[in-house]
Design brief:
The complex is a heterodimer of chains A (about 140) and B (about 750). With about 140 residues, chain A is mainly alpha-helical. Chain A has one domain. The radius of gyration of chain A is 17 Å and the shape is elongated. With about 750 residues, chain B is mainly alpha-helical. In chain B, strand 1 and strand 2 form a beta hairpin. Chain B starts with 19 loop residues before the first helix and ends with a helix. Classes of the chains: A mainly alpha (about 140), B mainly alpha (about 750). The interface between A and B is large, with 55 and 44 residues.
Chain lengths: ~140, ~750
């Protein structure tokens, strides 16, 4: 990008964290209210895209907890793990398990969905918006 | 594996161990045959729900095949250790060869159609790997692909035939199908089933018009040719025909097809043998010819035919495998297999010459060889069957050519003055002499002491022709008739041997044989297929996004139209369709404005924004229609899409704006697609809605999954497996797209 708005670039950092917090909130409330891992993941992607557009993709990538592909794979892995945990007692794969404090394999599964969406779509967005430079992983 | 670099033939003996496995199998078989009466059975459950079990049944025919597979297998492995002494990749070859042997053993002992089919296909696959072993040579790759396509195509037909047979007989068990006799013959589907099974067997055993792959498969190393393409794999089709013969013997299609195809193959391949100059290819043609003779013999319905099949099957393996090894030895020692360059080798290679003569005797059906016995039995069988004259004459010619080929392989290349010195030709090491010598001596022994072979052959013959009584192989010696018929063939054969070169030149000039044969048909089919794929890819996968969209929309319109034409229900415009309040009106207006603007605006950014309006409008609709989750997701998708696309727009070169005519056409297409969608939805609304599932989810969401948001509970709990698949697809799509995206970035680099 040749011309960037300084204002937006400066504002993007705090906005990123606000959007990410919103994404997490949407993820966690999803079980009872509108929301969930998929929408939450999309909001997180929006946050990453904002930084990528306002500053550059390198900055956006640095803000991710992991590189896009590992992040997406971690998500799929967590979701699979949630399924396996549920099957420990001999129950079918992906049977839900609830602990007494509301923690459950279902939440773990939703976190997996969140990470998979965030990682994969951010990977696409970053690669498409990148100015060149070494191929990203 | 270390590359063999020494020049002494003895280095390969390290791989002699590979012969131990077939040897062990052979010993076990022999021990079992001596101690336990046939048939042996073994059944293990596999897929009980489908009636498929790992069932094996070994009767006389299976035992004969197993004896060939393991016995010749042992010697082929010994031979291979000498032949491949300098081959760095011999470990791979021997490994695949072992796998092939196991597949063969499974195929001839399987008593379940599915199990038989699996082993059958495994032999095709391993054969592909073995034929293409010299994969750095173009013709070897082409030959391997041809062998695979022909035999696997036949395998597909075989599977179809098996499925039909299993449905007719009501069982997957092979012996069950064979035993269901009259019910089988009365079924109208039988001709199709039998035809498919025959196609499978004909491709495997290289019968006309599928015969062309076998000579090309000679690109394989010689141990492979000797084992797969003379003694075992090509006999698998014959085995299958023989196996089914007892059940189908009285079926008109079976009998006539086998006789016609067998005779054609035997004659045609024998004539084509005269066109070849390569020793291995000559032998391959006569192998096809012999397979044709076997097919013809199976087609005869007399009891003696079974005996003839069993005897000739055995005799052929016992002379053809050594002859292939002789060709391999000559190739190994001189570097050529062309009979034009080979003469007078008997001084340099006395042992190989001896083997060639002994095997040649058997091939020509002369006394002092097992081939003599087999020929005698065949003559009896043909006389019993009162074979029609044409086929009889054809077989005389076939046998005469066999005599001539035996002469070429055993006499022509070894006798006569030695060719101009071509360096020092040395006899090959013992590992390459002992196996063929042992096999021909075995043939000799069976002739002199038939008691050794009798029980096995009779057991095999009785599984082909159950009505065959106890026959002593020697009993059918009738010297006068035998000598008269043999005399004719041998004399004719000697004549052919003498004029071989002239016949060759005459046939070689017949170029039309190459242009119009089945091999040419195969080639043009292959080219046609590649052409069709290229044309279809150019048409459908052209890379123009607009074109893809047009096609997709056209398909949608077609679906809507067909759906409407087929059912023609009156669309139900009940209360659900009426605008409800201002919000609906605003949403619909947003979408309408967006759609119209997208058509008429010329600036790309503006077009993008306009299409974004449509997305937001529909999100608004969802929101007020009671689907907040959907609306939420739609908002987010639309936002990310528009923002990212907008920031990408300046990156792409601006192509000339589409012409007005095209824009109008696209607008019409889009409108039609919208209309089609509307029609489909209206029809859907006209159907009585089944709310059973929705009610259940609504009721169980909180009670069973502790969540009030039904949509999310469905996504992460009730239908979590679907979601897992979806996120895996999303994540793996990134993995697949990364090379493309990296290419995009490389392009942008200054």
């Amino acid at each position: 990008m040749t011309s960037r708005s300084t204002l937006l670039a400066v504002a993007s950092r705090p906005l990123y964290w606000v959007l990410l917090a919103a994404a997490l909130w949407i993820l966690l409330r999803g079980h009872n209210e509108p929301g969930g891992g998929f929408v939450g993941g999309l909001v997180a992607v929006a946050a990453s895209s904002l930084v990528a557009i306002a500053r550059d993709t390198e900055a956006a990538r640095r803000l991710l907890p992991l590189a896009p592909l590992p992040l997406a794979m971690l998500g799929v892995g967590l979701a699979t793990l949630a399924g396996l945990l549920g099957g420990i007692g001999g129950a079918p794969f992906l049977t839900h398990l609830w602990s007494s404090w509301g923690l459950s394999t279902v939440v773990l599964f939703d976190v997996g969905v969140f990470l998979a969406v965030w990682g994969s779509l951010s990977g696409y967005v970053h690669a498409l918006l990148a100015d060149g430079g070494p191929a990203s992983r | 594996m270390h590359p063999a670099t020494t020049h002494d033939g003895d280095t390969g003996h390290a791989s002699l161990w590979a012969a131990l496995l077939p040897l062990a199998a052979f010993s076990a078989l022999a021990w079992g045959l001596l101690h336990f009466p046939l048939p042996w059975r073994l059944e293990l459950p596999w897929v009980p729900a489908l009636g498929v079990s790992l069932a094996f049944r070994i009767d006389g025919l299976s035992a004969q095949m197993l004896a060939l597979i393991t016995g010749i297998g042992t010697l082929v492995f010994v031979y291979a250790s000498g032949y491949l002494a300098h081959e760095a990749r011999r470990g791979r070859l021997l490994g695949v060869l072992l796998l092939f042997m196991l597949a063969m053993m499974g195929a001839v002992s399987a008593d379940n159609l599915i199990v038989l089919f699996l082993f059958w296909e495994l032999t095709s696959l391993t054969s592909f790997l073995l034929v293409g072993f010299k994969h750095d040579e173009l013709h070897a790759r082409a030959a391997a692909r041809q062998a695979l396509l022909v035999t696997m195509g036949g395998g597909l037909a075989l599977l179809g035939g098996f499925v039909l047979l299993a449905r007719i007989a009501g069982t997957w068990s092979l012996s069950g199908v064979l035993g269901s006799g009259p019910a089988l013959l009365a079924d109208p589907r039988l001709p199709l089933a039998v035809g498919l099974v025959m196609i499978g067997a004909f491709t495997k055993s290289a019968q006309f018009p599928f015969h062309f792959w076998l000579p090309n498969a000679m690109s394989a190393p010689t141990p492979v040719s000797a084992y797969l393409h003379s003694a075992t794999m090509v006999k698998l089709g014959i085995y299958l025909l023989a196996r089914f013969d007892a059940a189908f013997d009285d079926f008109w299609l079976w009998e006539s097809a086998l006789i016609v195809v067998g005779t054609t193959t035997a004659l045609w391949a024998a004539v084509l043998a005269l066109r070849e100059r390569d020793l291995k290819r000559i032998l391959a043609r006569t192998t096809v010819s012999a397979l044709g003779t076997l097919t013809l013999l199976i087609g005869l319905s007399t009891p003696g035919a079974g005996l003839a099949v069993a005897a000739f099957l055995f005799a052929h393996a016992l002379y053809k495998a050594p002859l292939f090894m002789v060709a391999g030895n000559i190739d190994h020692a001189t570097g050529t297999r062309s009979i034009d360059h080979l003469m007078g080798l008997r001084r340099a290679m006395p042992w190989t010459a001896t083997i060639a003569i002994l095997a040649g005797l058997s091939m020509a059906g002369l006394p002092l060889s097992f081939g003599f016995v087999a020929k005698d039995v065949m003559i009896v069988a043909k006389a019993e069957a009162e074979l029609f004259t044409l086929a009889s004459f054809a077989l005389v010619l076939v046998n005469a050519i066999a005599v001539a080929v035996a002469g070429v392989a055993a006499i022509r290349v070894f006798w006569g003055p030695p060719e101009a010195p071509r360096g020092r030709v040395r006899e090959v090491p013992w590992t390459m002499l002992a196996p063929p010598l042992l096999i021909v001596l075995l043939g000799l022994e069976f002739e002199l002491i038939p008691n050794l072979a009798n029980p096995l052959l009779l057991a095999a013959a009785q599984s082909i022709s159950p009505e065959l009584g106890d026959v002593d192989l020697r009993a059918s010696y009738d010297l006068s008739t035998l000598l008269s018929t043999s005399g004719v063939t041998v004399g004719f054969g000697l004549l052919l041997f003498v004029v071989w070169d002239r016949l060759h030149d005459l046939l070689h000039r017949q170029r039309w044989l190459d242009r119009y044969g089945p091999a040419a048909v195969y080639e043009s089919l292959l080219h046609g297929l590649a052409g069709l794929a290229a044309w279809h890819t150019r048409r459908l996968q052209h890379g123009g996004l607009t074109g893809y969209l047009r096609l997709t929309l056209a398909a949608l319109i077609a679906m809507g139209t067909i759906g409407w034409l087929l059912t023609q229900p009156a669309p139900q415009f009940d209360g659900r369709w009426a605008p409800q309040g201002w919000a609906w009106l605003v949403a619909c207006m947003l979408m309408g404005v967006g759609a119209v603007a997208a058509v008429f605006l010329h600036d790309r950014l503006a077009t993008l924004m306009a299409s974004g309006l449509i997305g937001y409008g529909s999100a608004l609709l969802f929101l007020f229609a009671g689907a907040p989750d959907l609306a939420f997701t739609q908002f987010m998708v639309e936002t990310v899409l528009v923002v990212v696309a907008a920031s990408l727009l300046p990156r792409f070169a601006v192509s000339a704006p589409a012409r007005r005519r095209w824009r109008l056409r696209d607008a019409a297409l889009a409108a039609a697609a919208g209309l089609a969608c509307f029609v489909l939805l209206a029809q859907l609304a006209g159907q009585p809605a089944d709310t059973q599932l929705a009610d259940w989810f609504a009721a169980s969401s909180l009670a069973e999954a502790r969540g009030r948001n039904v949509v999310n509970v469905i996504i992460v709990d009730f239908r979590a497996l679907d979601t897992l698949g979806e996120i895996a697809v999303v994540a793996f799509s990134l993995l697949a797209a990364m090379p493309l995206l990296a290419g995009l970035q490389r392009e942008r680099q200054p």
